[in-house]
Write a structure and sequence with these properties.
Length: 111
């Protein structure tokens, strides 16, 4: 009489901790000695239902995490916006102006 009660309590604790395999083993030990044990049969049905719900919740969470990771990874792989390219004439004109200014200031300081 004490053994089934202890196993039921332990199975219940295991189920709360989401250790379904251990809870199932304890319930199966009770049913091995008494196949008609009402509480063990009831708890076994509840355990199966809770296990299915947990698996479904985990599956949904895993999908959400994968989607988040894909979005984050895609955003990280996008190249930074390109800088507008200068026209070749603009670049040459700027370089020419810079060199003229440099020449002017260096030559005027030498005189």
């Amino acid at each position: 009489e004490r053994m089934p009660t202890a196993l039921l309590l332990r199975a219940q604790a295991q189920a709360i901790l989401l250790k379904f395999a251990h809870a199932h083993q304890d319930l199966q030990r009770i049913l091995d000695t008494d196949p008609e044990h009402r509480q063990a049969l009831k708890m076994l049905r509840q355990l199966s239902q809770k296990q299915k719900e947990t698996q479904q919740r985990d599956k949904t969470l895993a999908k959400e995490v994968c989607k988040w990771v894909e979005t984050s990874t895609a955003a990280a792989q996008e190249p930074p916006p390109a800088k507008p390219k200068q026209q070749p004439n603009e670049s040459a004109a700027k370089d020419d102006l810079s060199s003229k200014l440099w020449s002017y200031f260096t030559c005027s300081t030498l005189e």
